[in-house]
Design brief:
alpha+beta, three-stranded antiparallel β-sheet, 16 strands, 28% strand, binds zinc ion
Amino acid sequence: MTYRGPVAAGLLLNRKSGQCGVCGENRALTKTHVPPQAAGNTGPVERADVMNGADSGVVAGKWYIGGMWVRGLCAECNSFAGAQYDTAYGDFATRLWQWLQVGTRVALPSTQPVSLAPGRVSRAILSGMLGISPHVRVLHPSLADQMYKGGPVALPGGLSLRVAIYPGKAAMLAGPMLTGLLDGSSGAINTLATVTFRPLSWALVTTDTDDMLAARGWIDATDWLRYEDDREAHDLRWLAPHGLPVVHTILHSPSNDGMQLYSKDIAPLMRGRIP
Ligand SMILES: [Zn+2]
């Protein structure tokens, strides 16, 4: 079998054309904001490629304003996702953030429920992840095909989508990455893509390692992807009956007590900061 993978993801910021993470066609690639701009991922937000420093480990490169984005999707797939999912994601992120300003951060509010369209919200993130990690399409073409078609998505066996509340001002987008935990558990977390941008942190994770996230309280949002587009006002408490956990560190960030393994030729790694 001939390997027909995407070009080095280190070029994701600069390349003008390449293989689209959703349709797989070689086309001009457009700026794909992850998460959608409607969630506050706009001009003042700065991004920087993470690079390997000479002797100081990973360091952020030059900071640029303009939000967190990659060139990962063609115009058609980017526009489709934008039209279908962006507003729903932005609305949910806004409502959740407003609640986080006033409420307890453990139990979800009962008087003013946080509502969302679970299908659209989760597909907004998955679409962005396919832009961040073109290799997801190579590994799981049926997943990309479902996203191309639109509507409900059944993740292939072996993958799950996890989500937690993340309230910090730092942001990160990352492609395939493995973190070996150095906490004595000899465990590891293996993700194909992660998106951290307040108020949420998302991970597309292999199920053999998602117990690690489950143990930290991350919600399994895999089934959110199965909701139709028109299911628009679910109470978050139905989807997360035990509440949403709050994480204060970014998954795979060097501050974790773990060892990060990734290839800078395959995995984009981008930091952001929200003013
Ligand atoms: Zn496309």
